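Reviewers of the previous submission asked for a worked example of the structure-prediction workflow described in the proposal, so we include one complete record here. The input consisted solely of the amino acid sequence. No template or homolog information was supplied to the procedure at any stage.
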Amino acid sequence: MIPGPSRLVPGACSVAPSPWHVGQWAPDSIMPRQSSDRSAIRRRRTGAELLARSRQGADTQEVLDSLHGIAGGGTAGQIAQHLGNGADPRDVSVALRRLVEQGQVLEVRPGRYQASGSGGEHAVTLQADASGGLAAVLPDGSRYAVHPHYRLGAKAGDVCQILIGEDRLALVTRILRRSGREVVGAVNFLPGGPVLVADNRREGTLPIRSTFARFDREYQAGDRVVGVIEIDAEGRAGVNVTRVLGQRTPEVADFEYVRLVHDLPGDFPPEVVAQAEAYGKDMPLLDRHGNQREDLREKLILTIDPETAKDFDDAISLERDHRGNWIVGVHIADVSHFVDEHSPLDQEAARRGTSIYLVNRVIPMLPEALSNGLCSLVPKQDRYCLSAFLTLEAKSLRLLDTRLAETVINSRHRLSYEQALAVLERRERPGEWPEDALGMLRDCSKLAQQIRAQRERAGALNLFSVEHRFTLDVEGNPIATTAETTDIAHQLIEELMLLANRAVAAWLGAKGLPCVFRVHEAPDPERLKVLQTLLETYGLEAQGVETRPGLQKILGRIAKEPRAPRLVLNLMMLRSFKRAIYTVENNGHYALAFSDYCHFTSPIRRYPDLLVHRLAKRALNRKDFERVEIRPAYLDSLARQASWLEQRAEDAERDLDARKAARYLARRIGEVVPAVVTGASGGALYVQILETGLEGVLPIRELHDDFYRFDPDRMALVGSRSGRVYGIGTELDVLIAHVDIERADVVFARPENDAPTHRAAPMPGRKTKLTISQLLDRRKHRGKK
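From that input alone, the workflow returned the following structure tokens.
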């Protein structure tokens, strides 16, 4: 029997933690992690979610019955409230994962569930049919052939979510469990036999059916092992252990670990590489589809990208028309010219969904011959583009006209963001850039800032965030971190890309064609009420939180706070929002305040952008694009799978960042660093180091000066004798006490006789109208009606 984990002590640093038994005590040293990007609001994984892996779970039948009683489905928290009797959302989450694996429940969006068959989507185990294809058999016995071009790489034996298309073919939208895929985890020896506790929480705990011949000699307690999932005829999954995950350099070990945990794609199939490399380098005006392109090679066009980027997929130009109006040119790499619908290239791009950026590695959506070659808008080279010409009224900057065209460009200049910022701040070296390029760049920046101000007046929410990047040594060890935030150079590109994305979505609608929209729905009103209570608890006026103008005013107040509370308060705001997703239903983009919005500007690295390009070419009546897919169910299946693949990429990126953070802090055990509290629970504080943005937990047992209890109304730990408050926004010094590299956990302790730098307490005389406990109680009773 493998022993459970012992109490962590300062100075400990493990690379192979002991696993724990299902249902037994589990380590509470779980690090909450977060990340963000321009267009999507990322979901933060909490320690409670990871701890849920070790819980027994609620009764699955009760959970399923409750889910049937909630119109439109619900989250684990909503189902727990519906169940009543103090049901724990973590137990409900475990039961939901079991039901998903059994095909009775669908996770239609990250964290949101509905019964299989409701909403037109089903969970099935795919079967081989007599013709060599795949079939999906629903619980009622009805049988559907799986469309050969909409499989997402699924094979017989895989458990998948499917939609039924207009032609009665099954379309795979997500692979829930892939038969034959590798999985990594820890071995536990239970009375019923050994199991593998998968590091990917979605895999859960799998019975071990067999091990490799040398397992008894090579395996040591706590080792991570790799196994292959097999699914039997009744849909039950087990695992055959194939090897012990050995010790390698951090560069290789971290990448391999994340690749296995998240089932990330590896090398491109030979036929895909061959297709990508078969294209010639010439870019004639009459292209291979027989379409005549506009010649823009003499126009002043330039790119602005990160210093290390190789896949340049957008370029810009700016000029005036005869009336003095601005014509903004947004020129996007014409990936659809090279990636024919349903070709091997297209099938592989759809299966990957997005490029995945893993610190110093990239898993690209397209082979290098295209992503860094023919589709990359490198300077001084002819390149095919799909260009959007956006005419803005000279003074008001109102969008007067949108025109799309297939073009050939020759980018004049390639600037990094740092170089562009130097130009905009007039720090460039004399003669470094031609005057016409400098003038255009500065005009573009002025326009971008005016457009940004217009968006804010329309209700757009611009949240403050800081991303931290690691610098690695040759072996993959992190040796430094740098903070990245927005500046006017980044905002220049961001605003012009937002303008193009919005304009193209509206343009397709005006043409009567469908679109794959990028949708961000409004927050749940009850979550906003909780946010209001929290903000008021910490002394901020939060009236009007249910509207965008009200949220804007709150953001304005937050912007005046010092850096630490500003970061934390923005994080609180982010937690109240939903994720942005891809869908064929146009529900607008809440955070951007756009009624029409899609992704058009990055087809090298995002599959939905490629779909939008094809739809645009169909609207332009271009040859070979007259028959591209426009059926709603088919586009919806591609949109849904793109949303899931985006989530997978973000999970992988976050987990690799967390492992690098653990390695970075493992070298600093014993150091005392300034930090800020970002969350609290009954057992711990969640803490972010101010210097690096890296996060960890401060267990309640490390607060030795008092007996602390959790106050749910203030989301804080409060000392019973002293009244000392540790809550969201509290600044304090912490000791880096323990780091577990394999689990990417960081545990802090308090320096002896140290007090909070800043007490997070209510403002004198301020009373909130409704406490969080009352809100949750109201939600519970409302769910029973």
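Confidence is low (pLDDT under 50) at residues 1-56, 758-785. We consider this example representative of the routine output the project will generate in years two and three.
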